From TrEMBL:
Coiled-coil segments: none
Annotated MATH domain residues: 206-347
Protein name: MATH domain-containing protein
Species of provenance: Rotaria socialis
Lineage, uppermost ranks: Eukaryota, Metazoa, Spiralia, Gnathifera, Rotifera
Length: 381
């Protein structure tokens, strides 16, 4: 049957049982109960079909329109030798296939057993591998955690490196500033050196200068200690004192040695030479008794250490046996304060040595004679 609305082919039973219940075409959705008609084109196609034996496939029986006559011919054909031979050949082809299937089944059973054993072995091996994998996975997890910690540490180190670089850059700039400051200071120092000294260390108003010395340190180190330069005035003489320890190998004794030094000053060219003022050196007694250990340096106009310095300083006037170390130690309450002694230098500007009258026949006082005189005087004391 064929639908009038859309031309679709359907069977006659469906058209009679189902289409009558529809309100529209189920295929093209045309409204109303679908109308059908006989499909003459389809019938012509059926009538033109030819029929053949499904087994022989080469015997033609006729057209579909002659089907009642063909039934009788088909029955005769099925009983013919040709058709029977085709059936026998068909059965022969089926038998090897069936036996092959049975043999294949046995082989498959054997192979299944072998495969089962192999799979069992593989499963056992896999189980052992899994057991080994579990701790490995634990280690991997731990390593991953440690890796994350290391990564965090690396990030922290990187941050610190960035801070260090920033600090280094700041320090580099600071170093440049310091170098600039040092250059300015050197320039200023050079300017100061080129200027006249206005803030000098001067002797006190009573014409004395006191030199504080750690005598025990000198005894232990066996090294001389020199005072800072001191000036008699802003444009006066430049002097210094020195203290050391003298070892008398012959008498196995130690002595405090004090030296008087005339240094080269800026105003030496306008000063009177030789230095004609009496100088008295003393180790001060710190108690009320005031029993100072004193010595006056003898003066003579021809003594080289008292003339104008030609170099940085004159030859030292050295009193090597000024006082016995044992005397100071025994009387430490009188002369020592916290291991320090106080050496005083007094210059008498009221009695210059130039006004003293000397005997022309008196031998010239040299540095050696001064030293011998000092040694003799100290030994007498």
């Amino acid at each position: 049957m064929q639908l009038i609305c859309c031309g679709l082919r359907i069977c006659e039973l469906c058209s009679e049982s189902k289409l009558k219940l529809q309100r529209q075409c189920p295929f093209c959705t045309a409204p109303g109960i679908p109308e059908v008609k006989y499909d003459r084109g389809f019938r012509r196609e059926l009538e033109s079909l030819s029929l053949k034996c499904p087994k022989c496939n080469d015997q033609w029986f006729g057209l579909f329109t002659d089907l009642p006559v063909i039934y009788e011919q088909m029955n005769q054909h099925c009983l013919s030798d040709q058709h029977q031979n085709c059936l026998i050949q068909f059965i022969k082809t089926l038998i090897p296939q069936t036996s092959q299937k049975h043999s294949n089944l046995a082989l498959e059973t054997l192979l299944d057993e072998q495969y089962r054993r192999m799979l069992t072995n593989y499963i056992e091996k896999i189980d052992s591998i899994v057991q080994e994998i579990d701790p490995i996975l634990g280690k991997c997890s731990r390593l991953s955690s440690e890796g994350q910690q290391f990564e965090a540490g690396i990030q922290e180190v990187r941050a610190q490196c960035v801070k260090f670089k920033e600090s280094f850059d700041k320090n580099e700039k600071l170093a440049e500033n310091i170098n600039q400051i040092l250059a300015n200071m050197n320039k200023l120092l050079h300017e100061i050196k080129s200027m006249s000294m206005v803030d000098l260390k001067l002797i006190s108003s009573d014409n004395t200068y006191k030199f504080k010395v750690n005598i025990l340190s000198i005894i232990d180190n066996e090294q001389a200690v020199q005072s800072e330069p001191v000036h008699t005035s802003q444009s006066g003489y430049k002097l210094a004192l020195s203290c050391s320890i003298y070892l008398d190998q012959q008498n196995h004794a130690r002595y405090v040695s004090i030296s008087f030094i005339i240094l080269c000053g800026e105003f030496d060219t306008i000063l009177s030479w030789p230095f004609v003022y009496p100088v008295t050196l003393a180790i001060l007694d710190l108690t009320k008794a005031k029993r100072n250990i004193e010595y006056s340096i003898p003066w003579h106009s021809r003594t080289a250490p008292l003339h104008q310095p030609l170099r940085n300083q004159n030859t030292v006037i050295h009193i090597e046996r000024f006082c016995s170390v044992d005397t100071l130690i025994k009387n430490r309450n009188s002369y020592l304060q916290d291991d320090f002694i106080f050496i005083q230098m007094h210059i008498d500007f009221m009695e210059p040595g130039a006004n003293v009258t000397f005997d022309k026949d008196r031998p010239m006082i040299t540095e050696d004679s001064i030293q011998r005189s000092i040694v003799t005087n100290i030994a007498t004391k």
